[in-house]
UniProtKB/TrEMBL annotation:
It comes from the Bacteria. It is found in: Membrane. It is a multi-pass membrane protein. InterPro entries: Memb_transporter_dom (IPR049453). Residues 229-354 form the Integral membrane bound transporter domain. Residues 1-27, 363-393 are annotated as: Disordered. The chain crosses the membrane at residues 102-120, 265-283. Keywords: Membrane, Transmembrane, Transmembrane helix. This is FUSC family protein. Residues 378-393 have a biased composition (Pro residues). One of its GO terms (cellular component) is membrane.
Length: 393
């Protein structure tokens, strides 16, 4: 909703009328201040502890199971399957089951594809991941999955495809499918805790509302951004180039231009802060069981804040991702932290560039001089201000 206009101060004859330039400045500043305030805003909680606990449990049980079996190398496959639980947050039970089943199938296919690519040249892995980014975003949009976009699909294919010796395709797919199935079952059971039944219930659109051309254009933006980000990441010589691809995809899924720009900035600022948190965590000698416990804790904290402020949630998402990476393929912490910071900034800039270049005609008008030239009291051509939905990835 638009913020109410402050009533003018009474004219007691002592306050001179402001010059035209000053009046114009006053018209511009509130928009900038509002944008800055929204960047740092901590939006109200919406019973976030319910989905946060469910998602953390969906991750915890499969991870503990493979660790108890002495197979820490299998943690990455069950973890990506467990990310099924992140979808359809606070949706009604039937819609959540449908959307999580669809997301689980996509994630399982991505895990299998990643295992199939294991050992292939990096350029091949990144090229396939970029194509998957576009197709995955189209599938998510067509099925109205939330979170939107293809960030999790990118990470599943890129991370597993980058392993030198991944598990056999059938084993990787079976583990991911079992973990995804557990997440769906837990999603069904969460109705007894009231998620999607009482309190805030996420709206579920009946149709994606996109034409065939718009759907392909949507996928094309993901393909373009991740292709450039992956190429730059590979050229940097750092590890984990798929991180740049995930960061490039993150802003594109937001619902409008302002939300996309804000999400890209959040991605950079939050990740850099999260790298600092991870540096502190990895400065202490950790056993594998310690890492698993921290992954579960960070998953819970990330879900508590992801709908309230994305950059704050990334303080927990970043160490979560890096600890999972250390479980799958341990490496020097310094190199890992450097790669995460550089690849994320590189990818986010690529994503923002694609957002800027592919603006609609209406969005170009809103970001141009006409926005500043709006006379005081005139209606905002953008319509009522919208708060972006809970961003993910």
């Amino acid at each position: 909703m638009r913020r109410p206009q402050r009533p003018p101060a009474p004219d007691d004859g002592r306050t001179p009328a402001p010059p035209a330039a000053a009046a114009h400045d006053r018209e511009v500043v509130p928009d900038r201040v509002s944008t800055l305030r929204n960047f740092f805003a901590l939006h109200p909680a919406q019973r976030d502890h319910l989905p946060a606990a469910r998602i953390a449990l969906s991750v915890a049980v499969p991870l503990v199971a493979v660790m108890a079996a002495g197979r820490a190398d299998l943690a990455i496959y069950v973890a990506f399957g467990a990310f099924t639980s992140i979808y359809a947050r606070l949706e009604p039970t039937r819609a959540r089951a449908r959307h999580q089943s669809q997301a689980g199938v996509l994630l399982t296919l991505c895990v299998a594809l990643g295992a199939l690519l294991s050992g292939a040249p990096e350029a091949v892995v990144l090229a396939v991941t970029a194509v998957l980014a576009g197709l995955g975003a189209m599938a998510a949009a067509y099925w109205t999955l939330r979170p939107a976009g293809s960030v999790f699909f990118i990470f599943a294919v890129g991370a597993i495809g980058s392993l030198e010796d991944a598990a056999p395709v059938w084993q990787a797919a079976a583990l991911a499918a079992a973990s995804a199935g557990f997440s769906v079952a837990l999603g069904l059971a969460s109705r007894w805790a009231g998620e999607g039944v009482t309190g805030p219930v996420a709206p579920v659109p009946e149709h994606h509302g996109l034409s065939t051309g718009q759907l392909w254009a949507h996928g094309g933006r993901f393909l373009a951004a991740t292709s450039v980000a992956g190429a730059l990441g590979m050229a940097s010589g750092l590890s984990h180039s798929y991180w740049a691809m995930g960061a490039a995809a993150a802003p594109i899924a937001a619902p409008d231009l302002e939300a996309r720009m804000q999400r890209g900035a959040h991605r950079m600022v939050g990740t850099l802060g999260g790298v600092g948190v991870t540096a502190a965590v990895l400065s202490v000698p950790l056993q594998q069981w310690h890492m698993v416990a921290l992954v579960i804790l960070f998953q819970f904290l990330a879900e508590m804040f992801v709908g309230r402020n994305y950059s704050l949630a990334l303080l927990f998402i970043t160490p979560l991702a890096l600890l999972m990476t250390q479980l799958a393929a341990p490496s020097a912490p310094g190199e890992l932290l450097q790669a995460r910071a550089v690849e994320t900034v590189t990818g986010a800039v690529c994503g923002l560039a694609v957002v800027h270049l592919t603006r609609s005609a209406a969005e170009r008008g809103l970001s141009g001089p006409s926005r500043r030239g709006r006379r005081p009291g005139a209606p905002d051509p953008r319509g009522p201000r919208r708060t972006p939905p809970a961003p993910r990835g």
